[in-house]
Queue: 2 jobs
Job 1
Amino acid sequence: MSASLICGDPLKLTEELDELRKAEIDALHFDVMDGHFVPRLGLYPEMLKAIKGQTDIPIDVHLMLDHPTAYVEKFIEAGADLVAFHIESDDDIAETIKFIKSKNVKVGLVLKPDTPLDMLNPFLSEIDLVMLMAIQPGILGQKVIPETFFRISDLSKKLEDYPNIVIEIDGGVTPETAPKMVKCGAHLLVCGTGTIYRPHEDTILNKVKELRKIIDTTLA
Ligand code: DX5
Ligand code: ZN
């Protein structure tokens, strides 16, 4: 489980990070948006640096930018443990992967819901993670696109020869969809407004525990 920080309460960031640590969340998901590749704006490197100074939880940066290459270094300097960028972006994909790896940071490629999985083919031996969007990127709180489940299964088959590549799903994760995603082959789920940040009286810590339990019991 990866906590989607953009869904949090900016005024409670310190408390929320502490709860996520107690909940032993696997990763933090840090959304960066340019208002053009996707309609809204997202988080920024100075914020990443501040968070990095407060936590040991690995931070995965998700760049939703037309031109990710120009910004990669800023996020690496700020402390990104993994940088994922969209395969639909306008920059040279192979060069950007190479640059990120040269900095000893993990690299992921992200696919929008309609992007064919075969676009990954030239890069499979170079990457650490594939992130499938289960929604159109950039808008929080959308319902999962149903084809996502087939796409996860197809990707999982496709990656049989690449057992080290992590399959991450971003968007539309709820207590109902999460176990299905895992069953189809997902390893890491971005948890946002549908789960650990959903408006609810309960604490983030309890919501993480609850989701973990739901996934474990459904899969048992
Ligand atoms: C959407 C972001 C997600 C976001 C998903 O573009 O990349 O990280 O958390 O939102 P929810 O969790 O509301 O589906
Ligand atoms: Zn994201």
Job 2
Amino acid sequence: MLRAGMIRQSSAGIYSWLPLGLRVLKRVEQIVREEQDRSGALEILMPTVQPAELWRESGRYDDYGKEMLRIKDRHDREMLYGPTNEEQVTDIVRAAIKSYRDLPKNLYHIQWKFRDEVRPRFGVMRGREFLMKDNYSFDLDAAGAKHSYNKMFVAYLRTFARMGLKAIPMRADTGPIGGDLSHEFHILAETGESGVFCDRRWLETEIRAEAVDYAGDLEAFFREGTRLYAATDDVHDPKKCPVPPDELITARGIEVGQIFYFGPKYSEPLGAVVAGPDGEEVPLEMGSYGIGVSRLVGALIEANHDDAGIIWPESVAPFRLGLINLRPADAKCREAADELHGKLRTAGLDVLYDDRDESPGAKFAAMDLIGLPDQLILGPRGLAAGTIEWKHRRSGARLDLPLDTAVARFAGG
Ligand code: 5CA
């Protein structure tokens, strides 16, 4: 990411997102958003800086430890840079929702978080400041809360599949968020930070972004998605593992999301209650669900690269096409490349146009490193023959196309 000019480090675990990196981050964010919206979750935006009082109400102000960045404002009021938002969202809901008739609700935001990690590393994979999608579900009872959990289970599988990622749902520990039901979604990768265990059959199992009726019963879908054993090393117990050792894979994983069900853990201490159908007040049943949006950018590269650089899946690529003008100093080449660039853009294609005064070799290397799905390469020889070279980044396939068919080839497909 550094070499491709996507990000620049500001301090340990804190990065600026440069034009190319930001485009990918926004595309990842948009896929996450669309799948949240499709599931019926509502987007909000909560602040990054939160008052300490809220966290005192839940008891987490003291429990959270050094990972929480604590700050004081000019009036000496204790504040914090949010590492997560359970308290904040519960505060919103306790003020707004008083009756079971307003349930269920699922609120999400895509907002920067800060965790003062002991060892920030692997760039955006474990940062201190990072972008997370986090949402919070509110239900009247445990059955409703499980349905909300299942919805997110499905939405997560769809989200990652749309990015071309195979993220395996694994039983996981709940850590400082709490509760007793949790799954982490892991992409298997040698560079992954987490130790994971799973049934060998996961390797051949395809995860599809199926269309699902979120109002219907999702339990069958959940059971199917958890049929094969998969667990993180925090909860994996060799003595209790149902998979025989020779059918079990020990691997590394990148955790791109985690979902939690924790019932009334926050609603009870914060007094987020609703009147049930019989008029009795009950604390809300809650769950929370996170996706590491900025981490996903790194995870996508881990899953899609070769020695020359990144190979973006089309769904998240910063630009659909790269256009290289091999000879910008040549008037004919410049005219033809400028004209093609204009036509491609008019056809609605995102094009990265390299008309720099650099050697062809440097341009090829940069374009491969940046990893756009397709490249169009225009030079004097091709131009004389009325052709342009097309290179498919992933397969490496090259083909000379008639220049006048180049736009039609990529527009609308
Ligand atoms: N409140 C819950 C769910 S919303 C929560 O905070 N869950 S979490 O701790 O599991 O974080 C959600 C996701 O954020 C993780 O699955 C991971 O993908 C991402 N994440 C967590 N810590 C970092 C970090 N230091 N750098 C980058 N991404 C991170």
